[in-house]
Predict the structure of DnaJ domain-containing protein.
Amino acid sequence: MIMFDRIFNILRANLGDIFQEQEEKISKEDWELYEQYQRNKRQEEQKNYEQQFHQSSWQQQQEEKQYYGVLELPYGASFEEIKIAYKRLIKQYHPDRFHNDAEKHKAAVEISQKLNVAFAYFEKKFGQ
């Protein structure tokens, strides 16, 4: 019986080392796979972010060009030029000037709304 216990303990110790080595190999392989997965995931997220940034930047630039067009200004005009153009155009197309003609009044309301949106965009952009 004592002999059997000794043999069992020896086998358990030796097999335990084998199992532990196997677990370490598996965990190293799993860890490497996990790290590779994380790297791929980060690269994919970065790629998606760059695409979204590029697309949103392009869309924002197009929107900004449109607002400059509404204010009848060249792209890249200063905020002072924007204020002057806005005041000039809002006086020209103010709906109160066309209260006698319903069709012109409706057009003036639409134009003044576009002018207000464009000017609000530039106020926000320039921090005014």
The chain has two domains: 1-59, 71-128. Residues 2-70 form the longest helix (69 residues). The two ends are 92 Å apart (CA to CA). The chain has a mean pLDDT of 81.
